[in-house]
Write the structure tokens for this entry.
Amino acid sequence: MRPFASVAALAVGLLLSACATMGDAPVTPAAFDAARLSEHARVLSDDSFQGRGIGTPAEDMVVRYLSEQYAAAGFQPGGENGGWTQDVTLNRFTASNVRAGLKVAGETIPLAQGQQIVVSTRLPGRQVMLADAPLVFVGYGIKAPERNWDDFKDVDVRGKVIVVLVNDADFEQPELNTFNGRAMTYYGRWTYKYEEAARQGAAGVIIVHETAPASYGWATVTNSWSGPQFDIVRENAAAERVRMESWIQRDVAVDLFRRAGLDFEALKTQARSRDFRPVELPGATFSGMFDVATSQIVTKNVIARMPGTTHPDETILYTAHWDHIGVGEPDASGDAIFNGAVDNATGTAGLLELARVWGAGPRPERSIVMISFTAEESGLLGSEYYAANPVWPLEKTVAGFNMDAMNVYGRVADLGVIGYGQSDLDERLAAAAARQGRTVAPDSNPAAGSYFRSDHFPLAKRGVPMAYAEGGGEFRDEPRAAREAARDEYGARRYHQADDEWSADWDLAGQIEDLEVAYWIGRDLADSRDWPGWKAGSEFGPARAASAAARR
């Protein structure tokens, strides 16, 4: 699908217009090239790359392409043992022969995989079997002592299947401000729900899917969780993973509660209170059985480096994930390849073009490192692995810039900063955006939890100041309505779908502006002795403070 046939003709004019607004912006040694960005994205999202699934033959194609392009840009191998890559060992879990159902008031309700329920696991083993496990509704499934919040109270859920709501209590009632209003905390993420359930000893988790608080539709759930699941290798996986992880359609949950003599909406309202206590669903049980093929794969982060001339031990970091979903269930048109053109061939292309621009300019005083992460779509696993096993020390990593699903619809008025207010990179982003006639805007949809959904997060939580900024707001050029419609349509219909395809009609002038901001700030930092920090009250400040001595 090509939503904007008229945009390609505007590209040259828009680029000239963008250049005219930069005023006293610093000189970029080589102009960012829209044609190069488009070609990288086209190649990486071509059907031959089979949706860039990890642990598949397509991965070798991606690694080869990226390393060749980084080398052509003048970068050196920055991975392990003098090579281009870092090995990331993961467990892979493939569920099959799924049989699941509910029993309530003496009646059995079958649940079809991918329709009413999506069932998976990230616990090593050959089979999962849950027979008539009691069901307990635990609200949002949160245990946050620093917020005086405990959804579990003293209720023992060991061996039971817990039913939880997605997001956190403030989404429905932001004035509570228990979890920062509508700015989702990590407690609202599905990853946290599963982790806390394991700590509580639950046998399984059913997350009730609702589109608004999840920020994506049921199709995204089925596409993301019906295929193989991955996890890093854990020393004691049984203590950190439940046997069954699942999502259920909201209508199924409402019907289940009704049959058990309960009111789903009333309980959902009660769950917004600190006084909420878990509610066992009377006479309701869950049974599920599925086979699990468990194996290990080695997937790869691709790392490129330009050593600094004066302080090569200090690093400016640029990141984006190269992976996508791979091959899944065919859509209505029969297309089963999830090409991931916007998410995230655009960010990967952005890294390659940043590398070319850095390579064309004077050598920086500090080192520049580009990391194309693997396994982001499997739960930020490539970045989590790197953050736990850094090739280049985190305490000497000055700052970083993450790029994910970049703007392909044209120049916009704002630079949206995900996690605005966390670090003093905010002021640098504002100054750089102002040179382009743009304004910095806090995350326009903090309830979606974007700060916890991309590869900057594992680095940020270990103290590295990371910027995740992307163009947003109103479009600056005509046809504005068509651009807005195309951007909205992607989020509603193509995100994590087989239809996330490259288009020759993309207008990449907005992506170029975002890349310029990342380059300008990186250049300033690379040739300075500055160490950006976290603002007072940020939860990431203490981790950075612990390594302060290494930066003196």
Summary: DSSP finds 16 helices and 21 strands in the chain. Confidence is low (pLDDT under 50) at residues 1-25.
